[in-house]
Structure formats: structure tokens, C-alpha cells
Amino acid sequence: MTRWGMVIDLDRCTGCLACEVACKSENNIPTVSPGQAEIGRAMSWMTVVTEIEGDFPDTAMRFYPRPCMHCDNPPCTKVCPVEATYISDEGIVGQIYPRCIGCRYCANACPYVVKYFNWYGPEWAESERRHLNPDVSVRPKGVIEKCTFCHHRLQKAREAARADGRPLREEDYQPACAEVCPTEAIVFGDLDNPEHRVAQLAEESRAMRIMEELGTEPKVYYLASRE
Amino acid sequence: MRHGVAERFARLSPDEQTLLRPLVETSRGFYLAAAVLGAITLWGAFAYYLQVRYGLGRTGLNRPEYWGIYIICFVFFIGISHAGTLISAILRISQAEWRRAITRSAEFITVLVLGFGAIQPIIDLGRPDRVLNVILHAQGLSPLLWDVVSIGVYFTASSIYLYVPMLPDLAIIRDSGIKAPRLYRLLAAGYQHTPEQRRRLERVIGVLAIAVIPVAVSVHTIIGWIFAMTLRPMWHSTIFGPYFVMGAIYSGIAALLVAMVVLRRVYHLEDYFKPVHFDYMGRLLLIFSLLWFYFTFAEYLTAFYGGEPAEMRALWAKLAGPFAIPFWTMVAGCFFIPLILMWRRSTRTPAGTLVAGVAVLIGMWLERFNIVVPTSVNPRWEFEGIGRYAPSWIELSIMAATFSGFILLYMVATKFFPIVSIWEMKEGREESVQEVAERVAGYLPGAPSVAAAEAGDE
Amino acid sequence: MSPTRREFFWTASAAAAAVAFQGVPEVLWPQDQDGYEGWEPGLEEARASTCLLCPARCGIRGRLVDGRLVGIAGNPLHPMSRGGICPRGIAGVQVLYHPQRLTGPIVRDGPRGSGQWRQVTRDEALALIAERLKGLRAADRPEALALLAGYCAGSVEDVWRQFLTAFGSPNYIADDYRDGTDGVMALMHGVERRPSYDLGHSELVLSFGAPLFEAWWSPLQAFVGFAHPESDETRRSRFIQVDTRFSRTAARAHEWVGVRPGTHAVLALGIAYVLIRDELLELDFIAERVSGFEDFTDVEGQLQEGYRSIVSRNFRTEEVSAITGVPVERITSLARTYAESPAAVAICGSDVTAAPNGLLAGMAVHSVNVITANLNRPGGVLLGDDLPLAPLAPLVLDDTARRGLDRERVAGPLPAFGAGGQRDRFAEAIVGSAAAQVEVLFLYYSNPIASSVAPDVWREALEMIDYVVSFSPFLDETTRHADLVLPDLLPYERWQDAPTPQSYPYPVWGLAQPLVAPHEGGTHTIDAVLEIARALGGGVREALPYDGVETLLRERARGLFAARRGMTFRSDFESRHYEQMESRGWWLPQHTEFDEFWDALTERGGWTDLFYDHTDPGRLARTSDGRVQLMPPGLPVVLDAQGRPRRPYIDVGSRGVAPTDGFPLRLVPYRVSTLASGSLALERWLAEKPGLFPEVHWDPWVEVNPATARSLGLEDDTQVWVESSRGRYRARLKLFLGAPPDHVCAPYGLRHPDGEIANPLSVLDGSIDPLTGVQSWSTTFVRLQRV
Ligand SMILES: Nc1nc2c(c(=O)[nH]1)N[C@H]1C(S)=C(S)[C@@H](COP(=O)(O)OP(=O)(O)OC[C@H]3O[C@@H](n4cnc5c(=O)[nH]c(N)nc54)[C@H](O)[C@@H]3O)O[C@H]1N2
Ligand SMILES: Nc1nc2c(c(=O)[nH]1)N[C@H]1C(S)=C(S)[C@@H](COP(=O)(O)OP(=O)(O)OC[C@H]3O[C@@H](n4cnc5c(=O)[nH]c(N)nc54)[C@H](O)[C@@H]3O)O[C@H]1N2
Ligand code: SF4
Ligand code: SF4
Ligand code: SF4
Ligand code: SF4
Ligand code: SF4
Ligand SMILES: [Mo]
């Protein structure tokens, strides 16, 4: 059984933000006006969260790139009254934009606050529409959106593999953030496939998950050497 | 009052005259008030139009503050709606005779406020145009869906529960012919005061009274669960079901008290809403203020004692943080003020209860605020930033419109239906007095067989 | 908006609708659909190119759908960036499709900076320029043409230089990355090129304030060095960051050594002291290849102290510790770690060299590499060589040109060891002298009003220049003062060669090529130059006999084809294979035909040669005595001339730099990694979140230590004026635990949402290192005032 998951190595992450921007470019995530951003309406399916502790000169800082955790036991899907957010049989938690009624219950249910709401419709200048990725729909106003593990890439990879009549390879399906990360901090693959690096890395002693105690069973693991 | 109507009106009994006067006489004050409230309501509707047209961005909501004023009002109004049906049902079953004068006004509150509560979540939707998806794509595990169902049932039940006991009065109006004959003929549905009909009526009311209680309880329990089913600090709590029900009844009683004082004043119902009513209701309020304190204290103590970091952030935000003012105002409004006022009989007067009632209403609205907002802005993950929330004028207008709309509708209702049950007063006068005497006698030693008393009860 | 009657009607119905549980008609959702239809999946392709947004020049791969550039990712074949890419590069699509890009050539139509323009055709524009230039040559004043050019290393720079020289103007003003390290290499190695770092093979990287992961020559080179080999954490090289502030680089490095501002070099010499004391030196190497280590007699026959004596006498660990604030044990352990690791390297960052005595400080840092022989060996400092490109057509200088070139440069003679600070000296000279020395100014990739240390001087200077031509595709702050704008094509539309910066040891000829059809209103600036050259005729025409950039690049590539070395980009594995072969003296041609070669070149993204001959001593030093000179004889002469102590190394600490009264806080300007100079404002995704403060969007900020802020009575998020004796700018105060107390860490390159520039460099005290001309970014003191 396939379980798509991600491992992020915090000892490699330099907080460069490439993953954030790659995600925005891949998934047609609009910017909002400065005023809107100021009151917390900026969208970023992937967000690099910083943990900083200790006053100068004993400061330590760590960067947590945070996509949707694609919980195996997702609190968000349960509460959706119209099943506009769901978990696929390969463990990807997705959104059905045309069905979402915009109640934001799932957003409140998500302990990782990775759901973003379209308070207004997206605004792209005429010229900017040319760089929109046709594989990903542009969300209308009033619906919830979030990291999808770039599952449109999975669909394409599947088709391609089927076309050449071969099985899906690990490198065939890589989300945008993992693809661009310059320090290979993000590793993506099938957690149930011992061949895949994620499966091996998730077993490492450095591996941990955010708020594991909640029993949400996140499929995003973090590697961190404990100082 | 037109001439024909006047003389017909003159023929009515004193009870009927006082209680039906609002149906035939309307003061200029009424029109004035109606105009003002109507304007506010329209303004709110306009605000909502803007919100729909341009998006929820017109509110002050954001991430992680996903829910605000609308959800607060939702919980608040549905809470109020526990005033009528639940209270009157309990009083009926417990055969509290003093209920007769007040049940009707209470039941009206329920039915009207329920509607206004129920639209709040829809106003809060990003895509109201898709609201029907809730039925088309119903997802049974969502507490939101349970809520839709229970509110639906509750609304139907309490409408019937309002309507059925009103039949005899509607018949009286029809017979008196003082107003819209055709309308009342329709409404009265051929009720003729025959003993047979009366017996059936009583039985139906009896059944409804019992049936409606669990429904009412379920409604606010589920609203509590909407929050409790999430893993968020200070929401994820088993006490929320009962806590919300208790709070609902509490705010319901307060709302009822306020309504009574006002009705008493504008429609000169001094002989119907007597000091004793305020005294008794006041005691109820007192009991609930203590209950409220007990529940709230339990809730916060467990959170505090557990000392879980995320919970503590939300907790301190309320106790001593940015939400200290709403929090302590709530405590004053829901506990100290009613406690002090309702403690002594001397202040369980209309005036006293009015003050206490208003205090409790404000307090309970703030309680909803203190549940929704502080948790929303304090996400569980420590590295996630803390949010902020300032409601926009759109939200405030819509809230104002909800209040004004409800009051307006309530006012209008008093123009079509007697706000105190005529026949129940009559029944009280003609039967209950001696019936109660017998019943009481029946409780005492050396009395005629209890069976007789029971029979008397029938 | 105010309610109209119609809206009131709507109101009623909308409200009714809502109350009636019917929701609201779809009519009310116009913006959902419109505009996003009609781009259902189309013809897809992926094409290689090179990112031109900063000097690193990473390999990229553009994803094209029906000819639209819908995504940019790294090119796995590029030897330096290895498929990695930074956020600026990814957001390039927003530069390409920026709504404010100029749609065609415009000429001023009203007073300067009035914002009134008139559209003209490309040919008209070119004619106007040519006419002006003809005029200059006719008047025998070719030197009155000046070019202000940003970073454009490669054929673009070569063409510009060839053009100006053939035209007869010595006024090529480079406005690019000048970190002074080329001066260090020139002095100590006699080689006019910046040090190259073989990070791929280093086991210990000791960085003195080089923001490796932020704004270094090539962040990607650093990332790759940091992260490879992919698996096996144990074999990865160890990074130690010496830095004033707790930078992002310091945060991720394995170790961070916090030093007082401007004392990096002192720490370096403290380490050298321990190495000498504990005999952790490569004495044979020093004996054979280094001069100036021991005491020596100079040309005047006087006995001079050598490096050993100077360091041993002046940099005892206790003193160093006192100056730098680094504990003695730490200094010792750093030295040991450094000496023990077989492949270590000390990197000299621009925060070392951007100081009043930057050159000497840079020498001090580099000396650590010299005495441990981490030179010319794997993982150390290499002295790379130039690309074997075919040269441009031979220069033909006519008399006009000769006369022009003999006249003095407006910015005056270059500093002794470098070419820093040219831009501002140029402007000052123009403002300073009455005689209009410059009549025509070309602006290429340069926006001094936004980025200069002295924006006002620049405004004045522009007023005094007759004719300002900008080639910027955007109406940036300086371009607004131009008389004519001939918008360049954008990076993804044009041909350009993009060699990796010299920090990367192996020659790489990245190729940027059109991924999308060029904008009809744009003109490749170099095409324009070639056309103008043709129009001017004479020597200028003969010097640039190319009909376009593409042909020019093809011509130059013939050099690579003929070089009998290197290869077009290959996968990791193949590359290693080729390197092996070359190291054994083999080389197999992969292409028999040049056209084949060119196709491979364009398809894979470029050419490289990963073989470096570590055994070739010739690379190491081209000095008078053929050795690496710790005591360059040229230096004392210059120092004397400037009346400074004639020996290097001694006063490298920025002593004497102290707060003046009223300005208690030290300004620490730094470049945010999301900034591709100048273009940040163009990339909205980055402008929305320029740094790691989640709540800062579109908003310039400064970082201050919480304790310091408290003592100033300022709290988080207040808008403050950052005020120095030279000026002030507005920013948002952020509390940051990693900021040194009494310092203000100020990211530069940011703009306010309304476009107002917030440039810490504009308040700098303006002091420079006279040896290199490099501005000192480290010596300014400021105060903070609530707005
Ligand atoms: N505020 C601020 N000041 C700075 C710096 C900073 O980062 N911020 N950096 C300092 C340093 S280190 C340097 S080197 C200088 C660099 O600063 P500048 O020399 O000003 O160079 P940039 O700002 O990178 O780019 C200048 C202009 O090039 C134009 N441009 C963009 N794309 C193209 C193109 O494709 N073709 C052409 N012809 N023009 C284009 C843009 O309009 C941009 O405004 O500034 C120094 N001062
Ligand atoms: N991301 C990115 N990278 C780039 C560029 C780009 O546009 N974007 N442009 C390139 C160009 S043109 C340039 S010039 C370079 C700029 O790159 P750098 O020349 O490295 O400039 P900064 O990154 O600002 O580094 C300045 C450093 O000086 C340190 N510093 C500040 N004050 C003091 C002090 O008092 N004493 C000492 N010793 N150090 C101090 C700061 O901590 C900061 O780390 O980046 C190049 N690389
Ligand atoms: S791209 Fe990689 S290194 Fe950069 S922030 Fe994201 S995870 Fe960290
Ligand atoms: S992280 Fe949040 S949104 Fe993602 S699956 Fe888990 S609960 Fe749902
Ligand atoms: S916002 Fe959309 S996805 Fe989330 S719960 Fe409501 S309907 Fe479901
Ligand atoms: S997996 Fe795809 S959607 Fe999720 S964060 Fe990475 S790029 Fe964005
Ligand atoms: S580092 Fe410079 S060249 Fe490389 S991708 Fe980023 S901006 Fe482009
Ligand atoms: Mo630079």
C-alpha cells in the first residue's frame, strides 16, 4: 500500500525559502495587498517557521518548513460537512474547491494551521496570468486551500509511466518544494516502500513529527539532531 | 380604533380586553421604534450584500482567526432560544401554576430568535451560494451537520409547541371578530372550545412538552461539540456539551425577564406579570448564576491545573492577557451582578431583574466571545504566531441588524397574537385554583385517597 | 463605497435570499471564472538556460506551456548549482511577466523626471542615440560618453568595454560586486582574480563573515558544498561561521563564532598565532613557495620583520580575545580544528573587506590559508583560470579614440588595488567641477538613485548630464530621470553568456537563451550596441563586426570547441568520468561538428571543465619572486604615500571606530538572501515575505536586540527612523535575539509598499578603504527615533 510522505532534514535546511516560492509558483498562489498581508491574510501552503532561542551570543535558530502534514488521521477531513476535504487511499489529503462552502471548520480543526482561506478572489494582472500553471486550478474567493503534495504531479507521472508501460519510479513524482530545495533537505516518497529514501529516513533516530502526541499521525517527518 | 371594531371590542371580558388591546390599538411610539429597527436591519442587510459581493475579506477575520462575530452570535442567539420552549416545557411538566402568564411570551422568543441564530453560520459562509451542498454532499461525521439536523428539528418542534397552545386564543380572536376574520379563521383551524377538543389539546401539549426537552438539550450540546470536537486549546473539553446547555438556559431566562419587563411596561400587563413572577424568575436566575460559576470554575481550573503549555497560552490570554477586559466583564455580568441583585427579595423586583437580565445577556455574549476568539488567535503549535482580530463595520452592522431584526419581529408578533395566553388565564381562574387546593390537600396526611387528587389533576 | 439606490434594491433581495436559506445567485461571483479560462493544458517543453538575477549565475530549466514560461527550476546538469535554485530564481517568472515592464522605447516629453513620455519606434530611438554619439566624435569629445554598468561579467561586459574603447571613452564605470578580494590576490599572488574556493572537496569551511547561505558570490555553490554528499551526514564538510550578527548562515553552520564588528581579521591572526606557536604550519611549503614569513631585508637594505614575528608579537591569544570578544580556549580550539583537518579553507567575506582597512584585513584572513598551505590543493583556495573563449574581433583605434582614451577618467585614476566605489566618485566628480565632462550617460543594469550611498549627489549629477539613456526594462528610480529609454529584453527572452563567478574554481560558461518569444517592445541592449556601432562606422564598427548577440556568442563558443578540454554539461557521474580522464591527460572530443557542439551546448545549458591541475605551480603565484608574498613589496610604498604604518597585519582591527555622541548604535547592514539586487521589488512573492519574520510583509525592517530596544523604550513593530549623521530612513523595528546588543542589523535592498526606498547604505558614513576604494559598511553609528 502506498503512503506518500515527506522527510525534512532540519540540519540541512538553511531557511532559504526556495520551497515556499516554488510552491507558490507551482500552485498559482496569489500575493495579497500589503494591507491584507498585514492582517494575516497572506497565503503560503509551505511556510518556513523559525524557532529561535537564547539571547546573543548564545542564540540558536532552527527552520521548520511546514507544509500540510497530510495526517493519516486527519482532524480536518472529519469535520467537513460537505466532504470538500478528504484523504485519498494513498494518504494524500486533498481539497475539492468547487464543493467547499467556506465554513472554515477544517481550518479550525487543523492543529498545524496550514489551511488558507480565500478572503477575496485572487488578483492576477493580465500579464501575470501567463505564468499560471495550467495543471492547477485557480481558487475562487470563499474557499479553503492548502498543500496538496502537488498531487497533480502524481497524476501526470502516473499517465507518463503508464504510457511507457513501466511502474512509477521514486523520482517520477516529486513535489515542487522537494524538487528545488538546494540542500536536499526535503525528501519525498512512499513511506511504505523500503526502497524509497523517505522510508529509510523516517526510521532514523533523528526523526520526529510535530505534535505527535495529538495522534494525528502526520506523514511529514523532521530530522533534527538533538543538541 | 374603527367604530365597528370598538363596539365588538367592548363586548369582550376584561382579561380579553387588556390582552387583545395591542391587536387593535397601535401607539405612535410603536411605529417610531419599528421604523428605527427596520432601518438598522436594512443597513445590516446592505452590509451583508457587500460581504457577498466582495468576499469575506470585508470582515476582520483572518488566519488563524477563522471564526468571529457571526459564530459568536450564532451560539448566543441559539442559546437565547432556550428561553421559551425549554423553560415553559419544564414549568408545564412541573405544573408550576405561576407559569400561565409567561409561557407564551417565552415561546415566541424561542421561535423568532432561532431563525436569526440559524442564519448566522450561513452569513459566515465563504460560499452561501453553495449552502445546499450541506444536503447534497452531507458528510455524517461533521458536528456541523448534526447541528443542521438538530436545529431543524428544534425549530419545527418549537413552532408546533408555540402554535398548538395558541389555538384556543386564536379561536377567541376569530369569534370576537376584532381583526382580520379570514386570517384567524384559517389559523384557528376550526377550534371550538368543546371539552373533547380541550382534552385532546391538553394531551398534545403534554406530549410535546416532554418531547421538546431532549431536542432543546441536544441543540446546544451539539453546538458545544462543534468546538469540543477540534483539538484546539480550551475547546477540546468534555464539559462543553452541558456547559453550553446550562449557559443557553441561563441567557434564555435573562432574555425572557427583559422581555417581560418591557411588555409589562408598554402593554400595561402589571396584573399579569406580577412581582411574584419576577421573584420566582429571579430565584431561577440566581440558581443559574451559581451553576454558571460552578461550570466555568471547573472548566478553567482543569485547564489551569493540567498546565498544558498550549492551554495555558489561551488561558492566560483571557485571565491576564489581551482578553482580560472581556473576560472579567463576563464574570461580573454572569456572576457577581446577578448574584448580588437576585440574592435579596427586595431587589428581585422588575427593575432589579431588568438590570440583572441585561447584565447576564451582555455577560453571556462575552462568554461566547471568550470561547471563540482567544482560542482562535492562540494556535496550538508554539512556533506559530499569535493572531489578532478586530471586527469590521460590516460584521458589527450585521450583528446590530440581527438584534434589531429579532426585536422588530417580536414587536410585530405582539400585534397579531396575545402575548399572554388568554385561555390559560381563564383556565387558571376557573379550574386550577380549586384543583391546586385539592392537590395540596392530597399531599397532606388524612386526606382523601391520592387517586382522587390524581383524578382532580386530570 | 457608498450605497446607491440600485444596491439598496440588491440589498433587499440579497438579504431576503439569505434569510430564505437560498444563498445568493451565482451572478455575484464574476471574478471566479473570467480570465482563467482558455489555458487548459497545452504543448509542454522544458528548456535549459541560466539565471541572470544575481552574480551566481545558476543553471535553470524553464517549463514552457504553449510558449508561456510557467515555472523555473534548477538545471541538474549545471556543475555549480547541481539542480538547486534560490527563491529569487524561481520567482523570475514574476520579473518576466511584470505588469510594469515598459512596452517600448520612450523619450522624455517634458522636464526631467516629470514622468511625461512619448513613445518612439526602436529605429527612431537608435537613430537618436547614434546621432548624439556621432556628435561627440565629431566634436572630438568621445570621452564625454560614460557607461554605468551593473554586474554583467561575460561577453556583455566585453562588448561594452570594446565599444567604449573603440569609441574612445575611458569612462566605463563598473557598478557591480566589488568585495576587494581581487586586491588581496593581486598583492599576495600577483594574480588579478578573486580567490576560488573548492567547497565541494573542503572538509572544514572557516568563513570570516562571508554570508555563504545568503548573499555570497554564489549561495548555491555554498549550498551544494554544504549539502553534498547527499546521504551520509558524517562525510559532509563542517562549516564554521565567524560573523558579527547571528546571520542565517551562522544559524545553519555547524558552529558560530560571534565577533565584534570589524575584528574578523584580528581573530584570523589570533588563529595564525596559535598555528605558529604550536608549530601547526606547513613549513616545507612555506620554505619553498612563500616569502615574507621570516624577517627579511627589503630593497632599501633595511631588516624588516616578517609575518612570523609580527603575528607572534602582536596577536597573542589574550590580546586577540580582548579585541574580538572570543574566549582564548575557543581561539585555540579553532586553530587546532583548522590545522587538523586535511582539507580546510578560510573564506574572506565582504564584511571583512568592506572596512576602512579592508585590504589588509583580507590579507590577514587569507594568510591563514597560506601558512597552512591550503592553496592549490583539493578543498582549499584555488586559482582558477579563464574560459578558453574565442576573443572578440581585434580592436582598431582611430585617432579620435586614441585621443579620447588618453584623457582622464571622470572618476579619476583607479585605486591602487581594486576598482571599488567608482560609481559615487564619478557622480561627485561631475557635481564637483563646473565643466560638463559628461554629455551622454548610458545606464545599464544600474539604478544609483535607489542604490547609491549618495542618492542626492546622483540626482544632482544627472541634472548636469545632457543626455541620459537607460536600457532598463523598468522605470526604476534612475531611469525616471532619463531622456531616452530603450528597454532591454528580460533574461528569459535573450541570449547572454553567464560565466560562474570566480568564487567557483572551475571555468563554467553558462548560456542564457530565449525561453519565450521576445517582447515586441524590447531590444536586446547588446544588439542595440552592435547596431549603434554599425551606424557609427569607422573603428567602432570594425571592432564589433557582429550582426547580433547570438552570432557573437556562437563565434566565441568556437574557442571552447577548439580548446580540446572540458565538455558540455553532463550528469554528476559522467562529469566525474571526464574529469578522471583529463587528469590522466586524455581528452575525447564528444562532437565532431561545431553545430553539433553548439546544439549540445544550448540543450544542456553550457560548457565546463572540471579538471584542475593541482600540481601546476605556475598557477600559484605570478609575483616578482614567483612566491606567495606575505609581505608584498608593492604595499609599503602605497602605504607610505598614504602616510599609514608601512607594515601590513598590524592595525587590521577597526580600532578607533567608536560611537559618536548622540549616535550610540552600530549599524550592521546586510543583504537579505531573497534580494536579487534591484529586482526584489519586482518579485511580488518575495516582497510579500522577504525574510523569516512571519509577520513582516512588503515592509523594510531593522533587527534590534530586545534588551537594547527596552533600554530605548521601543517595542516590537514600531516604525522608527534610523538616523546617522548623514541622513535617515524609515523602517519597522523587530526584536531579534540574534542581534548583538547596541547594534542595528539593517537588511538592505528593501522598499516600502508605496515604493519609497529604505536604504541603510544611504546613511553610511561614506568612509572607504583608500587601497581598494571599497566602501566601508561597518563603521557607521546611528540612533533610533520613533516615527
Ligand atoms: N538599496 C540597495 N542599495 C544597494 C544594494 C542593495 O541591494 N540595495 N546593493 C549594493 C551593491 S552590493 C551593488 S553591487 C549595487 C547594485 O545596485 P544597482 O547597480 O542599482 O543594480 P540593481 O539594483 O541590481 O539593478 C539596477 C537596475 O537594473 C534594472 N534591470 C533589471 N533587469 C534588467 C535587465 O534585464 N536588463 C537591464 N538592462 N536592466 C535591468 C532594474 O531596473 C534595476 O533597477 O547597489 C548597492 N546599493
Ligand atoms: N542574494 C544575493 N546575493 C548576491 C547579490 C544579490 O543581489 N542577491 N548580489 C551580489 C552583490 S552585487 C554583492 S555586492 C554581494 C553583497 O554581498 P556582501 O558583500 O556579502 O554584502 P552583505 O551580504 O550585505 O554582507 C555584509 C556583511 O557585512 C557584515 N557587517 C555589517 N557590519 C559589519 C561590521 O561592522 N564589521 C564587519 N566586519 N562586518 C559587518 C554583515 O553582517 C553582513 O553579513 O552579494 C552578491 N550576491
Ligand atoms: S528550500 Fe530547503 S533549505 Fe530552503 S528553506 Fe526550504 S527546506 Fe529549507
Ligand atoms: S495538517 Fe492539518 S490540514 Fe493537513 S491533514 Fe493534518 S489536519 Fe488536515
Ligand atoms: S471550509 Fe470547505 S473544506 Fe473546510 S470544512 Fe468547510 S466546506 Fe469543508
Ligand atoms: S508539496 Fe507541493 S503543495 Fe505541498 S508544499 Fe510542497 S510544493 Fe507546496
Ligand atoms: S542565486 Fe542568483 S543566480 Fe542563482 S538562482 Fe538565485 S538569483 Fe539566480
Ligand atoms: Mo554588489
Describe the structure.
The complex is a heterotrimer of chains A (227), B (458) and C (787). Helix content of chain A is 21%, strand content 18%. Chain A has a 4-stranded mixed beta sheet with strand order 8-1-10-9. Chain A has a two-stranded antiparallel sheet with strand order 2-3. A two-stranded antiparallel sheet of chain A has the order 4-5. Chain A is an alpha+beta fold and 227 residues long. Chain A has helices at 18-26, 34-38, 75-79, 105-109, 151-163, 176-180, 197-201; strands spanning 4-9, 47-53, 60-66, 85-87, 93-95, 116-117, 144-145, 186-190, 207-208, 220-223. In chain A, strand 4 and strand 5 (93-95) form a beta hairpin. In chain B, helix 15 packs antiparallel against helix 16 and helix 18 (422-443) packs antiparallel against helix 19. Chain B is mainly α and 458 residues long. Chain C has 787 residues and is α/β, with parallel strands linked by helices. Chain C has a 7-stranded mixed beta sheet with strand order 5-4-19-18-17-6-7, sandwiched between helices. In chain C, strands 26-28-27-32-25-29 form a 6-stranded mixed beta sheet. A 4-stranded parallel beta sheet of chain C has the order 11-10-9-15. The radius of gyration of chain C is 28 Å and the shape is globular. Residues 1-35 of chain C have low confidence and may be disordered. Bound molecules: ligand MGD (2 copies), iron/sulfur cluster (5 copies) and molybdenum atom. Residues 176-177 of chain C line the site of molybdenum atom.
How are the SSEs ordered, and which strands pair?
The complex is a heterotrimer of chains A (227), B (458) and C (787).
Chain A: E1 4-9, H1 18-26, H2 34-38, E2 47-53, E3 60-66, H3 75-79, E4 85-87, E5 93-95, H4 105-109, E6 116-117, E7 144-145, H5 151-163, H6 176-180, E8 186-190, H7 197-201, E9 207-208, E10 220-223
Parallel strand pairs in A: 1-10
Antiparallel strand pairs in A: 1-8, 2-3, 4-5, 6-7, 9-10
Chain B: H1 3-10, H2 14-24, H3 28-54, H4 69-80, H5 84-93, H6 103-123, H7 133-136, H8 143-163, H9 167-176, H10 181-188, H11 195-228, H12 240-266, H13 275-306, H14 309-319, H15 324-343, H16 350-377, H17 393-414, H18 422-443, H19 450-457
Chain C: H1 5-19, H2 30-33, E1 44-50, E2 59-65, E3 68-74, H3 87-90, H4 92-96, E4 106-108, E5 117-119, H5 122-138, E6 145-149, H6 155-167, E7 172-174, H7 181-189, E8 196-197, E9 204-208, H8 219-227, E10 238-243, H9 248-252, E11 255-258, H10 264-277, H11 283-289, E12 290-291, E13 296-297, E14 303-304, H12 307-314, H13 317-324, H14 328-340, E15 344-348, H15 350-353, H16 358-371, E16 381-382, H17 399-406, H18 422-432, E17 440-444, H19 448-451, H20 455-464, E18 467-470, E19 484-485, E20 496-499, E21 508-512, H21 525-536, H22 538-543, H23 549-562, E22 567-568, H24 572-583, H25 594-604, E23 606-608, E24 628-629, H26 634-641, E25 665-671, H27 684-688, E26 701-704, H28 706-712, E27 719-724, E28 727-735, E29 743-748, E30 750-751, E31 757-758, E32 781-786
Parallel strand pairs in C: 6-7, 6-17, 9-10, 9-15, 10-11, 12-24, 17-18, 18-19, 25-29, 26-28
Antiparallel strand pairs in C: 1-2, 2-3, 4-5, 4-19, 8-16, 13-14, 20-21, 21-23, 22-23, 25-32, 27-28, 27-32, 30-31
Helix pairs in contact in C: 5-21, 6-21, 7-16, 10-13, 10-14, 10-16, 18-20
Bound molecules: ligand MGD (2 copies), iron/sulfur cluster (SF4) (5 copies) and molybdenum atom.
